[in-house]
Amino acid sequence: MEKQYLPRREVDLGAGFIRNGTILEGTRFKRAIFKGQYCRSFGCCEDRDDGCVTQFYELKALCYCDKFCERENSDCCPDYQSFCREEKEWPPHTKPWYPEGRWTAQNYSQFWGMTLEDGYKYRLGTLPPSPTLLSMNEMKASLPAETDLPEFFVASYKWPGWTHGPLDQKNCAASWAFSTASVAADRIAIQSKGRYTANLSPQNLISCCAKNRHGCNSGSIDRAWWYLRKRGLVSHACYPLFKDQNAANSACAMASRSDGRGKRHAIKPCPNNFEKSNRIYQCSPPYRVSSNVTEIMREIMQNGPVQAIMKVHEDFFHYKTGIYRHVTGTNGDSEKYRKLRTHAIKLTGLLPTPGESHGERMAISGFFEE
């Protein structure tokens, strides 16, 4: 049965909707947790524009990204305030493209007072790929070899509402958990054709993936995928990020049991008391994709975003826009700045870059969990 989405500008607001300043504080709290891309996917509109609308999947309703949504009975999308009124940015397809290796830099206030070593220690968080991971056989997408790849592709445009934006890991060095949970959530939504669209909880991984667990002190994506397959994760709404992710009381707050057929069921309620669904989401065994750019794009176009491990140099902490490539000093880097670390990211699409061959024209776009 196809889902029905109610335009809230044409019906009375019911118990499932948001009323500013009313008793529905619990609903408002739940809504604040959702980090999906709504206005961020297609931009913002001034005045009243009833066509500036998208589906708010979590509440099976419609939400708006025009200024009119700010009225008393708000029907704004969850990211309206942060994106339309604070970030002042527009979707990727309206931004200028940059030649390969050309990018702009910026100083970030959240890094104020931090050394380069602090950046490596607190803002990344993935161990280098293990020999086991590197020895996995590479899988290829089943798209026909002659399939033409587009000049531009973004997963959120092909699967609106089924992919998830990045969460802020702050100073928790756990990109191993953030990127794994995000990629898994996207793929579960895509493979289920929108039946399961919940964002998965990185905090569940950070607190509960116990064997060789380093939590916010780096970790392995191998172990993260093992845990997701064998134990599973609850949604981010059920198990949200702790305010202090390095706190001593961040012991695992979820427990589950197997039904004997491989499927697990939670035996504890959600740590977030406002969320009632403690459904456990599991995935099939992970597989390795070729590092060839064309194969990566075929995989993303057919099955959704993929996870990657990248080397991070010191200049990456200044990256703002463009196509990143490490820039070395004219006299060579000093020993202090030749250090690098690894970081797990989610790759989501394709950007055009100048070049003569198709492979040279492609640059992978993605999210950096920061």
Automatic annotation (TrEMBL):
Taxonomic superkingdom: Eukaryota
Subcellular localization: Secreted
Matches recorded under Pfam families: Peptidase_C1
Gene Ontology CC: extracellular region
The SMB domain, residue ranges: 41-89
Keyword annotations: Disulfide bond, Glycoprotein, Secreted
Chief place where the protein resides: secreted
BP terms from Gene Ontology: proteolysis
Listed PROSITE patterns: SMB_1 (PS00524), SMB_2 (PS50958)
Gene Ontology molecular function, alphabetical: cysteine-type peptidase activity
PANTHER family named among the record's database cross-references: CYSTEINE PROTEASE FAMILY C1-RELATED (PTHR12411)
Family label: Belongs to the peptidase C1 family.
Record-given protein name: Tubulointerstitial nephritis antigen
Organism this protein belongs to: Galemys pyrenaicus
